[in-house]
User: Fold this.
Amino acid sequence: MAGNWKMYKTPAETKAFFEKFLPLVSGASHCEIVINPPFVNIAAAVDAAKGSRVEIGGQNLYWAKEGAFTGEISGPMLKASGAEWVIIGHSERRQYFGETDETVLKRTVAALEADLKPIVCVGEMLAEREAGETEAVLRTQFDGGIAGLSPEQFAKIVIAYEPVWAIGTGKTATPEMAADAHRVLRSLVTAKFGADAGAAVRILYGGSVKPDNVKGLMAQPEIDGALVGGASLDPGSFASIVNF
Ligand code: 13P
Assistant:
């Protein structure tokens, strides 16, 4: 269960979140719990989560280890700051910051080299779904990005299916729609990396996951977890999601 805070919260607000959140999830051993705050809050989050099962991640990284790349953050920097995870290829990065399947692959390889666990995002836009292109879009994103990994690299990633039309809109994919897309992704994995990889890969659903719809989504055997935006900002609501 991963929270993507996007561009929300200061270090002080991060600390306050963890003070409320940690006691609420102290009994949760059924899943891994990850919070991905903005870069400037990673130190505060790592510090606040110390001694708990909650792990911290970044929301992006650049593929070079260091260099003259103003404004960028590298995998080794994230790792040295105490992050264990990193989100890659989120639709907001694809829409607003020029992320492509090719750069998703570069970032994923760089994350693995830094010993970070990548959460690689894919998902279709509304117009693509309405045109019946969901499967083709997922295939293109998979082929252009994830499929370039070696089997050893692939075994270390988590995939997140996030239909763009469900992000921040309050429109969740129905559990069946999400499961259908997860099945498509799993079959792409099986075709490329084999049946064991297809069975083992964890696929998270993201897009307006809330305390009141998480149970239905998680009841689908195809759905292994959630990548939560808005509802992860509140300690009570993200704890309810974790404890679904
Ligand atoms: P919302 O949960 O706010 O729809 O955001 C989903 C998301 O983009 C998580 O990465």
